[in-house]
Amino acid sequence: MVWKKRLRSSQYTFNSEKVFLVATQPSKSIYSYLQTTKLGLTQGEVQERQSIYGRNEVIHEQKKNPFILFIRTFINPFIGVLTGLAIISLLLDVLMAEPGEQEWTGVIIISSMVLFSAVLRFWQEWKANEATDSLMKMVKNTCLAKRAGEREEEIDITELVPGDIVYLAAGDMIPADIRIIDSKDLFISQASLTGESEPIEKFPEVQGQQFRKGSVIELDNICYMGSNVISGAAKGIVFETGNKTYLGTIAKSLVGHRATTAFDKGISKVSFLLIRFMLVMVPFVFFVNGFTKGDWFEAFIFAISVAVGLTPEMLPMIVTANLSKGAITMSKKKTIVKNLNAIQNFGAMDILCTDKTGTLTCDKIVLEKYINADGSDDNSKRILRHAYFNSYFQTGLRNLMDKAILSHVRELNLEHLKDDYTKVDEIPFDFTRRRMSVVIEDRQGKRQIITKGAVEEILDVCSYAEFNGQIHPLTDALKTKAQKISEEMNRQGMRVLAVSQKSFIEKDCNFAIEDEKEMVLIGYLAFLDPPKPSVAEAIEQLYAHGVVVKILSGDNDIVVKAIARQVGIDTSHSLSGLEVEEMDDTALKEAVKNTTLFSKLTPFQKTYIISLLQEQGNTVGFLGDGINDAGALRQSDIGISVDSAVDIAKESADIILLEKDLMVLEDGVLEGRKTFGNINKYIKMTASSNFGNMFSVMFASAFLPFLPMMPIHLLIQNLLYDISQTTIPFDRMDPEFLKKPRKWDASDLSRFMIYIGPISSIFDIVTYLVMWYVFSCNTPEHQTLFQTGWFVEGLLSQTLIVHMIRTRKIPFIQSRATWPVMGLTLLVMAIGIIISFTSFGRSIGLTALPLGYFLWLPGILLSYCILAQLVKSWYIRKFARWL
């Protein structure tokens, strides 16, 4: 419980209590509370505070040093083991060997594997991590500030300190966390922080009593760095700068080490499991050979070779090659993979959490419908026509809904309607009455006022309603009906405006608010931020592949539920940010299991919910595009962003979608599962095969009067076997395997090794008996033939295991490998047979095998395949899994 509290409080520290205190200070005492004056800070105070608080800059991810990145590619348990074995081989086979007897083969083989794997991973990681100083660019700006003894002047926002007085106007970015002390019609967009597309009005004083608890984002008189001014003007006092701002706190949580992902944990578990096996078996082989043969030095060399044979030295390279292939495949689908491990995490993902605005929706307000005052459809487009005139002829700031109306008319090719009218006057919009009017006149001299605005405010100035071609008095019943129509559309996630008009106006100029009276309500406009066209199908496909989708949004619950219904997400279990805040850890941990919709969340709540889901054993992806999503992108196992996202979100993401088509998510999931399957094939093939071979070695070491195989034979056999598996990244996966999420399970690997590995040992021992009794290789003088016979059979049986393990079906019949895998398998098997007849084979202690040996070999290999298939079928029935 302790670490969870730490995650929730100290890791992402933001001083909410201080913000509430600043917000609730009365105007008359706010200057003294923030240690400033109405004239501003003196130059001496500015310098003193800059030395205390530093520059007003937000921390960001630094570009990685290539040398350090290259060194880090060697920090891998298997790379460490192989590097140690290469050093030992260099000491024993080269430096301590007699002149003329130095043996470089082992050193070269092991070192090549280490170097090739490290260089390949470095190249991919370097290309993936060429990040820019995007967060710094985002906040590089100037602001208008007032300091003592000076007039207001533009200064670089990095020079701001707590106590500075700043002035805000439309279009400005908020340069720090600020307490508003004076404002006029100030509307702030906090979309990048909260995900809510609608601007929020800010005032000098808090409204009501809701600010002793709840979300700091909702404070009426606080503006946060990173948000921007939509309209109006204000004066404020800076109370927090740099990394202590709300935005800075988010940025601090992103810099440094990422959360350990499911892929990292899985690879580590597998790695250390195999290393534990090796630490047990290698000493056993060493002591058995030392005691039975009497040559402890030779036994030590052989034990080192066994260690190399047990080590899946190609694992780092196979993993990197698989991930790189996945990244290349995804790049062809307009998807940038910044972090290679994200490919596999895609396949393991069983929960996808997503923001709403800009990810599920188009982040663009559209005019969804226009209806008459009685709720019927406006087939004549009369409502649209009046709304168009109102939006077109106004000269004030056009909001998102005005732009949506103009865009809709343009799509219908109805822009010519304006040509029959001229503008007489307008009554500008203000945020007190929340409506605006234009006065227009047609060619016949008919003059009318058209008023558009919030439903309640339009109803206040209307005395009549028009529908069915008739004008009716606006009774209380009609007002109630109007409110119900509005509420119903609100529940569907739409924002509603009402439209009214008054015709045959005789007044010809100087129109004012007083003229907005006795209007006729004619209808309503409904606006929506619609879901992207591909979202519903993409979510359906994710569900079909075992991935649960949850919405984590900063927007309000009505809008979130409406969008969820449209895209096919269950809306029966939902929580708000305030409810999340009031729940203890135990209750919240239980609640997040079934909750699919979270609304009004702070960025830290998003991050914490993801961490709770991960703690329950889930592999969690997050799809987001705003500043408020950056922490969640960083915490998740796979962070997915879009090309239009803010820079900090793209910097935090593992994967960036260049197109708005979310169907690529399904492609990513399938590609991830293919990658996981192919990596798992290699691990299980190598682990079980090597485990079986080591059983064979231990058995032979205990009973044979000579070594069953020379150290160089083990290294060459291991190298050829590894080469046969380099095409595994290009293999296909059975369709059944791709239907559900796949996760690493080290316990299954140990079980797999124990059950499947000894199968090869049975046929190795059969080969021993054939060589011992049939070909009379039972004395040290005949050990070369014995070792050659086992070398060939061991290599061929190891190579065949590739096809036995790659599918749960019957290989070659029900499921065939791709041609690269088939071709390389045949090539390596041919090399294994031919090598004993070559001069190279003789130079490493092999000899030509008699023809009779090749009469026994097919029977041994066929029996091996049949038994392996029978055991595989039994294993699948018993444990209900294979790869």
Question: Quick summary of this structure?
Answer:
The protein is α/β, with parallel strands linked by helices.
Structural description of this entry:
By secondary structure, this protein is of the alpha/beta class. Helices cover 49% and strands 16% of the residues. It has 32 helices and 23 strands. An 8-stranded mixed sheet has the order 8-23-22-21-9-18-20-19, sandwiched between helices. Strands 10, 11, 12, 13, 14, 15, 16 and 17 form an 8-stranded mixed sheet that branches. Strand 12 and strand 13 form a beta hairpin. Helix 11 packs parallel to helix 26 (664-703). The longest helix is centred in the C-terminal third of the chain and has 40 residues, at 664-703. Mean pLDDT is 83; it is low at 1-12 and 130-140.
Low-confidence stretches: 1-12, 130-140
Average pLDDT, all residues: 83
- Largest sheet: spatial strand order: 8-23-22-21-9-18-20-19
User: How much beta, percentage-wise?
Assistant: 15-25%
DSSP strand count? 23
Helix content: 40-55%
Largest sheet features:
8 strands, mixed
Supply database-style keywords.
883 residues; alpha/beta; eight-stranded mixed β-sheet
Architecture blueprint of SSEs:
Blueprint: H1 2-9, H2 16-24, H3 27-33, H4 43-53, H5 66-72, H6 77-95, H7 105-128, H8 134-138, E1 142-146, E2 153-156, E3 165-169, E4 177-189, H9 191-194, E5 200-202, E6 222-223, E7 228-240, H10 246-252, H11 262-293, H12 296-310, H13 315-331, E8 335-337, H14 341-348, E9 351-354, E10 366-372, H15 382-393, H16 400-411, E11 421-430, E12 435-442, E13 447-454, H17 455-461, E14 462-467, E15 470-473, H18 476-491, E16 495-503, E17 519-528, H19 535-544, E18 548-552, H20 557-567, E19 574-576, H21 577-582, H22 585-594, E20 597-599, H23 603-615, E21 620-623, H24 630-635, E22 638-642, H25 647-652, E23 655-657, H26 664-703, H27 711-724, H28 746-774, H29 783-805, H30 819-834, H31 839-843, H32 853-879
Parallel strand pairs: 9-18, 9-21, 14-17, 18-20, 19-20, 21-22, 22-23
Antiparallel strand pairs: 1-2, 1-3, 3-7, 4-5, 4-6, 4-7, 8-23, 10-17, 11-12, 12-13, 13-16, 14-15, 16-17
Helix pairs in contact: 5-7, 6-7, 6-12, 7-13, 11-12, 11-26, 12-27, 13-26, 14-26, 15-16, 26-28, 26-29, 27-29, 27-30, 28-29, 28-32, 29-30, 29-32
